[in-house]
Amino acid sequence: MRILFLFESCTGNTEFGVEVMRRTLQDKGHDCTVMRYREIRPDEVGDHDLYCFATPIMSFAPLASVWRFIKEMPSLEGSPAFVFFSSGGVAGPSHKLIARELRKHGMVVLGSRLLVCPDSFPVTRGLYKGIYRGFPMLRSLHKLAGFAVEMADKAQLHKQGIVVKMPRFLLLPNPIFPLTLFALRGELYRWLGERTVDNQACNKCGICREVCPVSAVRLDPFPTFSTSCIGCWACLNNCPNSAILSTAAKPENYYGGLKDKDVKLRKISLY
Q1: CA 205, CA 202: separation in Å to the nearest integer?
Q2: What is the rounded (10 degree) CA torsion for 236, 240, 243, 247?
Q3: Domains assigned to the chain
Q4: Per residue in 54-99, pLDDT tens?
């Protein structure tokens, strides 16, 4: 089965989850392709047997750039898909929003899965970052691998014309929905505070430019930021020298990503 994983990842959490699923399904003999949304146009996603749409959660919403990509996709009538999220906590209505949008494009949404990872939002990390020691948990990674196999098996049955049980994804009124809409519109940049660059600490490595999901960073010769910023904090979190500063959070609360990926992969027999 030809499976396309589309993902965006601001600090590596979502990318790690996708890698767990890719390795699992590759070991089962499936042909897996992994791409970032920014590496492909919405009209180029066709011609696969199964699709995974993966995104981090930002304020109970999928990443704004991912949301825009999915809305711009053409119809993929009858194509099976599933959704994957990484988050520091509750997903909110994210999976239901994406599932509903995919169904508008004619896709059959087989399921969704959330992987709880360390929080990447520096404003809140200072409050409870200690509780994330050991996350993502090994049992969660095992369940994620099992979920990927389940999605591939369901897609095979769907391809054979066999009816499979699918979740309903009902989108009900929710008090956090206004915040979700705020994030979907890419308005989270308003929470970044005043952003500055420490020219003495910056070595012009360009990592901030590489990790930005919307190409809102350029070097001139130090980082500058355009109005297309969606407030994902990727540039601040990934800077190796904490040279990008914000009045909204301290550098010690930045999140540089998981440090034990290979160890976790070995422990779940995927290395």
Answers
A1: 8
A2: 30
A3: 2-172+258-267 (3.40.50.360), 177-253 (3.30.70.20)
A4: 999 999 999 999 999 999 999 999 999 999 999 998 888 999 999 9
